[in-house]
């Protein structure tokens, strides 16, 4: 079994930012498989790398999407200003260096001689256009919170750009490593703006013209079936080793494993925890396992009765058996959650007022809330075996306090749309803890500005919004840590969601595959992969 080390990050000063590249939730999709394999490729390069995935991408626009399958494709087409290496150390990518030239100004020196797949040049004006697009209310980017503290963007020269922030903000370089800040060709941005003026939705033109600076370029996409990227031969840096990458949608867990075993797929994602030993014991295959900067949660729609009652939410959170989830469903992988983040993120502390399982106490809370005899409700989940199992275990637990739950399994795209629109009662979802800092996930999941994107619990709490703002701009590390402890305690008291567990990323790697790794958010790193 391949095990990846996981490194803890922390903010130390204004000159040091932290991050783990990341994104959003785990989805699913439907589709049939094909039989392209790439077998026979030379060991040192070439061939078609086949990645069998549970879920299709939903969009090729990094600024308007927020799911991991889309990010896995996008991060191979587009690039960010900075990135993290295997040790989760921040290093140059499209920017060669970055400096806090003033307390509230970050300056980035950009790499010269970089061109997009359409031949246009990468420069400071392009960076400005990209960040402005993310911040533009018309774009309605779910990732605008990454840069909302940016007050001004100033182009110093062709390859120097400065970002002035409302307050000193040490994590800005880390936010620039998030693939939501990927650089799109300015010609494509202009085309998308024109399309929006003509009545199209933001991102429609980008989705049809995904032009980045990455080592792979877009070839074709058959939604629900497969998506193909080609090696970009004019890439500014070291070229990718394979000729093409095919992301093939294989929704059935056992079918993905069979494809790994036969060599029809070189990498599969995910491997369910219950299937881990099978992959480990197959001849020539290995399991790639790493701790995840991710949270899986049971969310409540706080705008619907009875979930508008804090006591009801607390009662449900107190009833759930997280140990049964970890041992019975995750086969001992992952770790129980005591809040929205784990120790991969700055802001985590074990010194929080965690919610302990107490069925009798939960019954008392329900009675106090006026639901002594319980009530009927629904849990939504997407078509993911692990999440369906979690929903069934939750259903059984809540029956102990008189809550009768109907489980509804919804197709991934419809699931995202419906939960964004607030059509659900309860739902199971996850979030990648994108930047290694509590600022991002707490804003994404709970801030009022994120309602309708990451905030699917519809929490709108001015006091909590202010807590996040004050923690965001605090420069003393110890003080800031304590502020996130208080924020976590506030969340456990309000219980907008039940924090279930932090999963492990488990993937399968076939015989003859070298150079593959994944970051803490589960995003594939494919530039150096070779296949035999």
TrEMBL record:
<comment type="similarity">
    <text>Belongs to the bacterial solute-binding protein 5 family.</text>
</comment>
<keyword id="KW-0813">Transport</keyword>
<dbReference type="GO" id="GO:1904680">
    <property type="term" value="F:peptide transmembrane transporter activity"/>
</dbReference>
<dbReference type="GO" id="GO:0015833">
    <property type="term" value="P:peptide transport"/>
</dbReference>
<dbReference type="InterPro" id="IPR000914">
    <property type="entry name" value="SBP_5_dom"/>
</dbReference>
<dbReference type="GO" id="GO:0043190">
    <property type="term" value="C:ATP-binding cassette (ABC) transporter complex"/>
</dbReference>
<dbReference type="Pfam" id="PF00496">
    <property type="entry name" value="SBP_bac_5"/>
</dbReference>
<feature type="signal peptide">
    <location>
        <begin position="1"/>
        <end position="24"/>
    </location>
</feature>
<protein>
    <submittedName>
        <fullName>ABC transporter substrate-binding protein</fullName>
    </submittedName>
</protein>
<feature type="domain" description="Solute-binding protein family 5">
    <location>
        <begin position="89"/>
        <end position="450"/>
    </location>
</feature>
<dbReference type="InterPro" id="IPR039424">
    <property type="entry name" value="SBP_5"/>
</dbReference>
<keyword id="KW-0732">Signal</keyword>
<dbReference type="InterPro" id="IPR030678">
    <property type="entry name" value="Peptide/Ni-bd"/>
</dbReference>
<dbReference type="GO" id="GO:0042597">
    <property type="term" value="C:periplasmic space"/>
</dbReference>
